Amino acid sequence: QERFVESGGGLVQPGGSLLLSCVASRTGGYDMGWYRQAPGKQRELVSRISSSKYKRYADFVKGRFTISRDDDKNTISLQMNALETEDTAVYYCNNFPQIGHWGQGTLVTVSS
Prior knowledge:
It is built from no helices and ten strands. With 112 residues, it is mainly beta.
């Protein structure tokens, strides 16, 4: 069973940046994704990256977030810039589509 450990969240002001990291049991050969769940809302896909590093983004983060992967380190990252209050959520990584158990996630709070 795949395992995911997310880190890098925190409190940031609107317009600020954060770099999220996720260490997985293994990433090589898998499509991977970052997801988020805001308070009172369903979990949603933020971005995904294929095993060949093809990247896709949700419309609400296009141009602001960048996903990357390092299969040698079993790590995927999410660079988040120009953060907005609406980005406040717990962020999770998983396979895409999701097949493993969810990790604990990392909380991102965007507030002035």
